[in-house]
Amino acid sequence: MSVTERSERVGITRANLSILKNGKAKAIRFSTLEALCKARDCPPKALLEYREDK
């Protein structure tokens, strides 16, 4: 699935999807996380990674 297709399916802009994809997001809305999980048919733990602050 292309970035454009995924952004349309999830309901966020390509720019915001790119920020999430590249790990530069500081936060994510639960509704966005839910939409991403539905689009990928996966649980949240498949998309999230915990990183301690430096």
UniProtKB/TrEMBL annotation:
Organism name: Lactococcus garvieae
Domain HTH cro/C1-type per the UniProt entry, residue ranges: 1-47
GO molecular function: DNA binding
Matching InterPro entries: Cro/C1-type_HTH, Lambda_DNA-bd_dom_sf
Lineage, top ranks: Bacteria, Bacillati, Bacillota, Bacilli, Lactobacillales
Segment forming the signal sequence: none
Protein name: Putative transcriptional regulator
Gene3D superfamilies tied to this protein: lambda repressor-like DNA-binding domains
